[in-house]
Amino acid sequence: MGNFSIALSGLEADTTALNTIGNNLANLNTTAYKGQTTSFEDLFHQQLGESGAGDPIQVGSGTKVGSTSTDFSEGTLLPDANGNTSDMALDGNGFFIVEQNGQQSLTRAGNFTVGNSGSLTTQDGQFVLGYPAVNGVVNTNTNPQPITLPVGATEGAQATQNFSVTANLNSGATVGTTFSTPLEVFDSLGQSHQATITYDKTATNSWSYSIALPAGDATGTPVNNTGTLTFDSSGNLTSPTNTVSGISFPGMADGAANLTFNWNLNGSGSSPLVTQLASASSNGNTPQDGFASGNYTGFTVDPSGVIQAKFSNGNSETIGQVAVANVANVQGLVSVGGNNFQTTGASGQAVAGVAGTGGRGVVDDSTLEQSNVNISTEFSNLIVAQRAFEANSKTVTTFDTISQDVIAMVR
């Protein structure tokens, strides 16, 4: 009898709905899990005839699962209590791109980890893709590639080549007054030296200067380490201008190369940083570009996905940039497990790019996106699906009773 198939179609559809709800509840704590909803639609109808008014007389043949849609709304972004920088979340649209055995997938789950080889991977070993940096510059015109961090690497030392000094020399000081500026510099081996710039007022608006290293740090005769600073009536440095070049200390006692650097009088601006005003002599910043060697200590990721490797000497180096992809129709994506999705003809191809551009979300470092399953909603749906299943079960038992009555009539 057709009656049984109607009720059984309802039981089959309700079972699918219950499975969907159960899967949502099972993934309440799954990073970036996206909840799903099962929708039904009726099967074809058989037309038995027409009423006296000409209206069709139809009997339905049951139901079926029409679709299982995915809720791609953003889950709660929860900062990592331990500040784990390998954890990332996307604030906005888009997906991280991962790859394993040549197969690319998309994921919202940013609970990544760093392997012994330095590869940034998912929990099940898929490579996280991005754009590599060349000489500190990210080239986003290339295809996304696996991101590798310099785990265990050591950054070599760099000798000081340029420095600048922000200072004021008291215009009211008497001739013979001295003042000094401490300056840390590094040689080619990364050894730190505490240099000193000593100023000696020789006349109105005129100070001589001398740059020296601690006794015993260099055995040779210094070159171009002395001179005179001249100021105008407004306290502006008029001579020398721009840069004092070729200051050199030969014969470094530790075996390093001759320490040679330039004094950039204007810093990064266009006006001299050393002034002579009617206030107490004082020192400000003394930036320089040398540094000691340093070991890799970790990394950070900025909102655009740029990865900066950190070293123990305080330096950072741009390693690459995490790729973020968009698709035209997210409902066309197919879930393949492991928090991954793959594209289909319905979704359109994934278009990779940079976070924060082209409608893509930005990257939140040390943060994870939580499951977007709402437990209250799922419990309500569970009750509805349960009642529907029970109702269809009752229909089956009713049809069975009627069938038994029909059989009894024949006896």
From TrEMBL:
- The Flagellar hook protein FlgE/F/G-like D1 domain is annotated at 89-154
Q: Which residues form the Flagellar basal body rod protein N-terminal domain?
A: 6-34
Return the InterPro entries for the record: Falgellar_hook_FlgE_sf, Flag_bb_rod_N, Flagellar_basal_body_rod_CS, Flagellar_FlgE/F/G, Flg_bb/hook_C_dom, FlgE/F/G-like, FlgE_D2, LlgE_F_G-like_D1
The name on file for this protein is Flagellar hook protein FlgE
Q: Does the keyword Transcription regulation apply?
A: no
Task: Describe the location of the Flagellar hook protein FlgE D2 domain by residue ranges.
Answer: 177-291
Q: Name one GO cellular component term.
A: bacterial-type flagellum basal body
